[in-house]
Amino acid sequence: MAEGKTSSIIEERKNKAGKLQEEGANLYPAGYQVDITSTEAIDRFDQMDEGTLEQETDSFAMAGRIIARRDFGKASFIHIKDRTGRIQAYIRKDRVPPENFSMFKLMDIGDFIGIMGRLFKTRTGELTLLAEDLSLLSKSMRSLPEKWHGLTDVETRYRQRYLDLIMNDPVREVFVLRSRIIQAIREFFVEKDFLEVETPMMQPIPGGATARPFKTYHNTLGMDLYLRVAPELYLKRLVVGGLERVFEINRNFRNEGISIKHNPEFTMLEFYMAYATYEDLMALTEELFNHLLHKMFDRNVIEYQGQTIDFSPPWAKISLFDALRDLGGVKDEIFQTKEKAGAFASECEIGLSTKESHGQILTKLFDHLVEPLLINPTFITGYPTEVSPLSRRNEQNPDIVDRFELFIGGREIANAFNELNDPADQRERFQNQVALRDAGDKEAQFMDKDYVTALEYGMPPTAGEGIGIDRVVMLLTDAPSIRDVILFPQMRAKV
């Protein structure tokens, strides 16, 4: 809406607000006692015929935002919207106190209203609240987007999510479903005897993932702190302490790029299970997703961006090297030397730094050539040890680790592995990461001496997994971008 038109509307509404105050109306009263929501009313009374409904003598108080109105002089139909849906109300001059009707005439679309009255059906059969008394609950000084065009500008929708939620019911439904998905995940793990915990968001040493952290400073302690990139090292300290099954659903922060798959602040589920292996977690992950699908939709097949995804177990399992060969068309010589892998990556127009290891190049080739092809749930195993600094080495082949990543819909959804619990091996891996940082890799991990100390007290054989909640919600709501499932995604400052 043009700035001039917006200013004139605000001025007009301020004038109405002034008149309301002159008539004794409180523009922003405290509270209103609601008896019934719009959906409760529809569920309870909409199936009644007009004659039966007329026998109902109870009056109900409802409240919501006015989202539409049709005026006919001495009467008006309005639609109000509450947290559950919308319902029609009918305001007649001869059915409400005079001061009520005078106040109503000065109200606008966007205002919040409380209405007390009886329910009836119009000639068209629409359930309607006949007003006997009404109250202004909040005066809106700005007009909502035009009814027939709604709010369609993507950037405005993300920046002003409150407008998006008002105008676009499907958006509201996405975030309601997101909340229910997270609740179902909690229920699943609690039933499996996991303990939900909270670990530090601000950490003196960022660890648990290969990522660039955000840095801050604590004045009283006189020290640098980092927003966590992952809770992993703290959750595993808890396993050392005897909490054998723990999980956390919370925010991670990574100072990286923004895309349809990435937001600097995102939600992760991480869980750790003593005495389990990563193969056990494969079965548990299949069970978790099928639990979610049946609880949310009562089926295990979904459509995502025009592609059918079948979650029926068992899911496909393939090693990273075999996936590169069989799906990516990579020749065996690429696995032999870093130079050959680098040359092939250049042919594929994959950007590389001179400091990248052979394993890092192979995983970048996988990301470029194979990941987009993995539509149905697929476990990729056998990652190079050099790109897995916290994972336990495979006993038959120490060049790879006991790890899987889960891919669905052409993107990574989860990462899991047998946890490295050998303190000497962990110290050496950290030292290798420190060398990478010293060489300029800002995503390499720090040395965490206290974590090594914790391992020296003994950690039982353990497997752990991280699942990106935002990406799971994307899948289950058919959302093309991570911004569509985060209420307030990070945006560049508006110039």
TrEMBL record:
Record note on cofactor: Binds 3 Mg(2+) ions per subunit.
GO molecular function: ATP binding; lysine-tRNA ligase activity; magnesium ion binding; tRNA binding
Chain residues that bind Mg(2+) 2: E412
Superkingdom of source: Bacteria
Cofactor(s) needed for function: Mg(2+)
Domain Aminoacyl-transfer RNA synthetases class-II family profile, first and last residues per copy: 175-489
Annotated GO CC locations: cytosol
Enzyme class: ligase
Compartments, record wording: Cytoplasm
An annotated GO BP: lysyl-tRNA aminoacylation
Residues given in the record as Mg(2+) 1 binding sites: E405, E412
Gene3D superfamilies: Bira Bifunctional Protein, Domain 2, Nucleic acid-binding proteins
Keyword Aminoacyl-tRNA synthetase: yes
UniProt-listed Enzyme Commission number(s): 6.1.1.6
Major localisation: cytoplasm
SUPFAM superfamilies according to UniProt: Class II aaRS and biotin synthetases, Nucleic acid-binding proteins
UniProt keywords, alphabetically: Aminoacyl-tRNA synthetase, ATP-binding, Cytoplasm, Ligase, Magnesium, Metal-binding, Nucleotide-binding, Protein biosynthesis
Pfam families listed in its UniProt record: tRNA-synt_2 (PF00152), tRNA_anti-codon (PF01336)
Subunit structure: Homodimer.
Family: Belongs to the class-II aminoacyl-tRNA synthetase family.
Protein name listed in UniProt: Lysine--tRNA ligase
Species the sequence originates in: Candidatus Desulfacyla euxinica
Taxonomic lineage of the native organism: Bacteria, Deltaproteobacteria, Candidatus Desulfacyla
